[in-house]
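[Meeting: bench + compute handoff]

Bench side (C.D.) handed over the final construct sequence. Compute side (W.E.) agreed to return the predicted structure before the next meeting so the bench team could plan truncations. Sequence as handed over:
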Amino acid sequence: MKLLSDFDGVWTDPEPEASAVRRLMVARTSELSGLAASQVDADLRELAGYALARPAEHGWSPGGRISAFADEDPLILGNAAAEVMRRWAGDAAAAPDSAREVAARCRVYCEAILDEGFASIDAYADAVFHAGTSAFRAEHGSALLPGAAEAAERMLALGVDVVVVSNSGEEKILDWFERAGIPARSVHARADDGARCLHVRGSAGKFVLGEGEDSISVAERRILVDRPKYVAAIRAEAPDAVIGDVFSLDLALPHALRSRGERWAPRTLVLAKNSYTPGWSGVERAGGAVDHVVDGLGDLCDLLATL
């Protein structure tokens, strides 16, 4: 069988990387605005808290449309906070009365960011995200979960063709697997030489939305499923199963494809449960769209042995 697997949140713990991104956003925003880091830190917490309290309205919004929601992954929170910052800077009345002073500082932050030459606040958040995760990688090497190497070996022993399809860059993923002693190759370097290894398709663009308005409704959320880059990856691999930790990014499109009866759509959808997994996608299984919820790589291996 072929398993299409996400990387961050399935093979890794994203929270240390998210913390590195947040620290960098505080430092960089303080530097640009001239305001104290402690003040910036408090304001960013306020912005993130506001987004988390209204997750269906906020999240990762490339091009102004939500691609994934604020409560699905800690790595999304920086972009979600930046989105609220942009909104409050443009319309202070959009902020609750208790946050009017924060909204006033949002205008200061946004003006400083744009004066620095960033095309948008979202572009700034993206730049901080990439710089923060790169800095984490340089300092710590990797954040693979304990037991990742053993899990990879079990999957290969079961005869599972594992293809890691991730928004993360291929170089990062291959490097982290190599450090852990996990044999892996790029999908572009597939070879019929009998070698047992994982394959990696990085920079998959699961978050990239097309111009279409095709969507599904889950937990009172409208999830856009016109994701041309991810469609291309799924069509190319034609997996039997897909696993991911962020329903909107990883599983919503495969669910839609399966519902339409596409012959190359997966038959099984698995959610990787983490400490940050929201109840609507974990406990409630996205209204029944998710077939299985697993708690860690060992649990995933046990499931694969039964499929």
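W.E. noted at the follow-up: The mean pLDDT is 94. C.D. will use this when planning the next construct.
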